[in-house]
Amino acid sequence: MLIKNIKVARRLRVRQRIRKRVHGTAERPRLSVYKGNKALYTQLINDDQGHTLAASSSKNLSAQSGTRVEKAREVGEALATQALACGIREVVFDRSGYIYHGQVRAVAEGAREKGLQF
After folding, report:
1. Phi, psi for 41 (deg, rounded to 5)
2. Rounded to an integer, what distance in angstroms lies between the CA atom of residue 106 and that of residue 112?
3. Rounded to whole angstroms, what are the CA distances from 54 to 57, 101, 102, 104?
4. Backbone angles phi, psi at 99, to 5 degrees
5. What whole-number distance in Å separates Cα of residue 9 and Cα of residue 3?
6. What confidence tens digit (pLDDT) does each residue in 12-31 have?
7. Could you give the C-alpha distances from 100 to 49, 75, 107, in angstroms and in order?
8. Residues 6 or more apart from 108 whose CB is under 8 A from it?
9. What are 32's strand-pairing partners?
10. How many Å apart are CA 41 and CA 115, to the nearest integer?
C-alpha cells in the first residue's frame, strides 16, 4: 500500500502493531477510536464474529458547540451508556495508532466516568 503522507503511513504501521495484540471478544469487546477531519468515531467491536456492538460519533451529539476534546468526552460517555445497556462492562481500548492525548484520552476518560472498565 503506497501512502504519500508520512504521518499517516506511520500511524497505520503503529496501528497494525497494536492490532496484533488487541483483540475483542463478546464478553470484552474492543473500543476502537477513529479521528476524521470533521468528526470523531468510536465503536465497540466483537472481533471473533466481526460485529459492531455499539457505535457513537461526534456527529450524533445533541450539542454541537464546544471544543473537540469536550465533544470527545461526550462521545465516550454516549458509547459507555450504550455498552452498559447491552450488558458490557469491560472493554479493550484500541487507540488505532493515535497518541493517548487530547481527543483519544478524553474518549477514554468519558467512558470510564460512565462505568466502563479497561
Report:
1. -125, 140
2. 10
3. 11, 23, 23, 18
4. -70, 140
5. 6
6. 999 999 999 999 999 999 99
7. 27, 16, 10
8. 76, 93, 100, 118
9. 43, 94
10. 19
Residue 24 and residue 106: Cα distance in Å, rounded?
A: 21
Grid coordinates representing 97 are 495508532
Cell 465533544 locates to 71
Name the residue with cell 468526552: 73
- Per-residue pLDDT reduced to its tens digit, 32-91: 999 999 999 999 999 999 999 999 999 988 777 789 999 999 999 999 999 999 999 999
Residue 58: all three cell numbers together: 461526534
- Beta strands at 30-35 and 40-46: parallel, antiparallel or unpaired: antiparallel
The answer to whether 9 touches 80, Cβ cutoff 8 Å, is no
> Which position has the grid cell 471478544?
25
